[in-house]
Design goal:
Layout (H helix, E strand, L loop, with lengths): L18 H25 L14 H24 L10 H11 L2 H14 L3 E7 L4 E7 L10 E8 L6 H4 L3 H10 L3 H11 L6
Antiparallel strand pairs: 1-2, 1-3
Protein name: Superoxide dismutase
Pfam families: Sod_Fe_C (PF02777), Sod_Fe_N (PF00081)
GO molecular function: metal ion binding; superoxide dismutase activity
Length: 200
């Protein structure tokens, strides 16, 4: 099994989202999830199995915390990896699928933004391997709202830490700035890796 390792910030600066926000978000929060993920998974190697219990046990607590830390790691990894460009609009296979699902890029943006305003933690454009199409799912926590069989293509972080320093409570303005920084070349590459994956 390949060992996941901490990823450096893939860009130097963003338009509209401050370097200070990105430094705290990446170097403190994302790094913290990676550290806790590793700590939990190390403890799982020696956890006592005989006391496993659905009401409470050390194994249950570790496995529950693992989903929070691992999802926190992976969602942030994809979030940062998808930023750092100003091409503004997609092209290629991802645009074709967006138009197939929502009719136009503008309608997709409007729906994705609305999902970001409705969610408490994440809005995620995913390749649903059951539906064989794009779907936007939302989550109120790292380990709530995700759908098994759905591969995250773009992750929009809407926790306050992602925007409050720059935008205060104006989450909509943050989402607009976030859209302007999406790296569609990287997103297209990720989508190309996903689009032929089918569950059935």
């Amino acid at each position: 099994m390949k060992q996941y390792t901490y990823k450096e910030m893939p860009f130097k600066t963003l338009s509209g989202i401050s370097d200070k926000t990105n430094a705290i978000h990446h170097d403190k929060l994302y790094a913290g999830y990676v550290k806790k993920k590793d700590e939990i998974q190390e403890k799982l190697k020696t956890v006592e199995l005989g006391s496993a219990n659905q009401t409470y046990s050390e194994l249950r607590a570790l496995k529950d915390a693992e989903t929070f830390a691992v999802n926190g790691t992976y969602l942030h990894d994809i979030y940062f990896d998808g930023l750092g460009d100003s091409s503004h609009e997609p092209a290629g296979a991802i645009l074709t699928e967006i138009k197939k699902r929502w009719g136009s890029f503008e309608k997709f943006k409007a729906f994705f933004k609305a999902c970001g305003l409705a969610a408490r933690g994440w809005a995620v454009l995913s390749w649903d391997t059951f539906e064989q199409g794009l779907h936007i799912y939302t989550g109120d926590a790292h380990n709530q709202g995700g759908v098994w069989g759905a591969l995250p293509v773009i992750t929009m972080d809407v926790y306050e830490h992602a925007y409050f320093m720059d935008f205060g409570s104006d989450r909509g303005a943050y989402i607009d700035a976030w859209f302007e920084n999406l790296n569609w070349a990287k997103i297209e590459k990720r989508f190309q890796n996903y689009k032929n994956v089918a569950t059935q």
